[in-house]
TrEMBL record:
Residues 127-317 form the Tyr recombinase domain. Keywords: DNA integration, DNA recombination, DNA-binding. This is Tyrosine-type recombinase/integrase. It comes from the Bacteria. InterPro entries: CB (IPR044068), DNA_brk_join_enz (IPR011010), Integrase-like_cat_sf (IPR013762), Integrase_catalytic (IPR002104), Integrase_recombinase_N (IPR010998), Integrase_SAM-like_N (IPR004107), Tyrosine_recombinase_XerCD (IPR050090). It comes from Nonomuraea mangrovi. It holds the Pfam family Phage_int_SAM_1.
Length: 322
């Protein structure tokens, strides 16, 4: 946690003009207390959302009380224009509560005003994400191959990597070319899993070919030998790492071009990997290790995400009532 890292975090976080001095320093310390960059980014976005609410209502964040938290919940729904998913709402309230808890422990505020704000009750074993079928997964790969523009090869490689290894979108965009390797004759990718030690994943043959094709084309356009190519595994046109937002939008667009109905996100690809693996007879323990889940029950949620639609007895009941 160097001074440079603190300064960089400060530049990225939009503070209210009056939130200076000790409270501001504590806010940066609170963010930096989280080891995961993804967690820091998520909490940074949520606390800025709270700051926007405070600015709109002429509220000093350090003077907030519980009723402000209750009003904030309704404000979030008004901003979204529709009911906010329960998990999203719970996460947003938890982030602000974590900030106040940190400040209260350091005597910057008297108490945590969000401590008793009612949060949605979440069933930890339920997920609203539904895995794709094999045909839908194939359709996404075909749509990626038919994508247009100079980024077509990158699209083909990224979609295959997400669907066929189940890695997180953050793991894909954070990877560098140097993370590619070989082990016992297999092509590998070193990834830093969420909250865990780095791990080596084996890359399937066709996914490897798509990656090599994309990187070879990128090296040619950069005027260097493939062996000398450096930088992020998936780069933007400027050569900078592809952002999670860009990758997210790409997945959504390719799913739409594939004609897949319903919401498809990078997390859908992760569920799809687990579902197809289980369907193909891969042991649950192996799927759990591949996905980096600490708890097997989390893996079961991924596997069951598609089955709960296919196994729904509503059609049987309707037919019985005819």
């Amino acid at each position: 946690m160097t001074a440079e890292l603190v300064r960089e975090s400060s530049r990225q976080l939009a503070f209210p003009p009056h939130l200076l001095g000790y409270a501001r320093d504590l806010t940066m310390a609170w963010l930096l207390s989280y080891d995961s960059p993804n967690t820091r980014d998520a909490y940074r976005r949520e606390i800025e959302r709270w700051f926007r609410f405070c600015a709109e209502h002429d509220l000093d964040p350090l003077e907030a009380r519980r009723p402000h938290g209750d009003v904030y919940k309704r404000w979030l729904e008004l901003q979204a224009g529709q009911p906010v998913p329960l998990k999203t709402m719970a996460r947003r309230l938890a982030a602000v509560s974590s900030w106040y808890k940190y400040l209260a422990e350091e005597d910057a505020v008297e108490f945590n005003p969000f401590e008793n704000v009612r949060r949605p009750k979440i069933n930890r074993k339920h997920s609203e994400t539904t895995a794709l079928t094999r045909d839908e997964a194939r359709a996404m790969v075909e749509a990626a191959d038919k994508d247009h523009g100079p980024a077509r090869l990158r699209t083909a490689a990224l979609i295959r990597l997400l669907l066929r290894t189940g890695i997180r979108i953050s793991e894909a965009v954070d990877a560098t070319i140097g993370d590619l390797g070989f082990a016992r004759g297999y092509r590998t990718l070193r990834i830093v899993a969420k909250g865990a030690e780095p791990k080596i994943r084996r890359l399937p043959v066709e996914t490897t070919f798509a990656l090599d094709t994309y990187l070879s084309d990128r090296a040619r356009r950069a005027g260097v030998e493939l062996a000398d190519l450096r930088g992020p595994l998936f780069a933007s046109e400027s050569g900078k790492p592809m952002t999670r937002g860009q990758a997210y939008e790409l997945v959504v667009r390719i799913a739409r071009q594939a004609g897949i109905e319903g919401k498809v996100t990078p997390h859908t690809c992760r569920h799809t990997y687990a579902s197809i693996a289980e369907e193909a007879g891969v042991p649950m323990r192996k799927i759990q290790l591949n996905l980096g889940h600490k708890d097997a029950s989390t893996t079961e949620i991924y596997v069951e995400s598609r089955e709960r639609l296919e196994d729904d007895a509503s059609q049987i009941v309707e037919s019985a009532m005819e």
